[in-house]
Design goal:
Length: 211
C-alpha cells in the first residue's frame, strides 16, 4: 500500500502542533483586536535564530523604570539589543524622557525614527545624527555570551553614553563586563519569558535601584 510510505505524526506531536497553531491564532486575534498596543511585549515575537530572548513582563518593567530614573527628567535612553525594555518604555508614552532602539532585527523598523539598524560586528557604524555621548543611560543586552560580542557592543555603549551603563548578560561574563565597561554585578536577577540555560545578571557603573 502506497500509504505506508507517508510519514505519520504521533498523536503527541500532532496535539502539540495543534496547540501551537491555536496559540498563534489567539495571538494574531489579539493583534487585530481593538486597543492592541504595538509596543507591548510579544507584539514582535522572539526569533531564536537571531539569539533573541525576551524578558518577562516584570523584568522588562523593572529595567525600564530603572532606566527612566537613572536618565532623569528629560533624559535620553538608548536600548542596545534590548527591545523588550524599549517596548516597556514606550508603554509609558507621555513621560518626560525619550528612547531609541538599536537593533539588528529590521522588524523593529515599525517603531519609525526611533529604530536604528545595529550590527554589533560594526559597533561604530551608526547614523551621523547619533551624536557621541548623547544618551543619559544606555541599557544593553549583547546577543551572544562571548567576549568578542561584549567587547564590540562595549564600543557602541561607550560611544553613546554620557556615563551611565546598565548591562544585561550572563553571570559568566562578570569579569569581562568589568574589564570592558567597568560595571559591577547587581543583586537584581532578570528573568526571561522562557527559561534560559545560562544564569543571567544585571551590571551597572552607577548607584542604581537594582541592589
Amino acid at each position: 500500500d502506497d500509504d505506508d510510505d507517508i510519514p505519520q505524526l504521533s498523536s503527541h506531536t500532532l496535539a502539540a502542533l495543534q496547540e501551537f497553531y491555536f496559540e498563534q491564532q489567539q495571538r494574531e486575534g489579539m493583534k487585530t483586536s481593538q486597543g492592541f498596543n504595538q509596543y507591548s511585549i510579544g507584539s514582535i515575537e522572539e526569533d531564536w535564530q537571531l539569539s533573541q530572548f525576551w524578558y518577562s513582563d516584570e523584568t522588562a518593567s523593572c529595567l525600564a523604570n530603572e532606566a527612566v530614573v537613572a536618565a532623569g527628567k528629560g533624559g535620553r535612553i538608548a536600548c542596545v539589543s534590548a527591545p523588550s525594555v524599549y517596548q516597556k518604555l514606550k508603554e509609558q508614552d507621555g513621560k518626560d524622557f525619550s528612547a531609541c532602539i538599536l537593533e539588528y532585527d529590521k522588524r523593529f523598523s515599525v517603531y519609525g525614527e526611533e529604530f536604528i539598524f545595529y550590527d554589533y560586528n560594526h559597533p561604530l557604524n551608526l547614523p551621523e545624527n547619533l551624536l557621541p555621548h548623547s544618551f543619559d543611560i544606555v541599557i544593553a543586552d549583547p546577543p551572544y555570551l562571548s567576549e568578542e560580542c561584549l567587547q564590540k557592543t562595549a564600543e557602541t555603549i561607550k560611544y553613546l553614553t554620557k556615563g551611565k551603563i546598565l548591562l544585561c548578560t550572563g553571570a559568566i561574563m562578570e569579569e569581562q563586563a568589568a574589564k570592558h565597561l567597568g560595571v559591577k554585578i547587581c543583586k537584581f536577577i532578570p528573568k526571561h519569558s522562557r527559561n534560559l540555560a545560562n544564569e543571567f545578571r544585571c551590571y551597572v557603573n552607577y548607584a542604581s535601584g537594582l541592589d
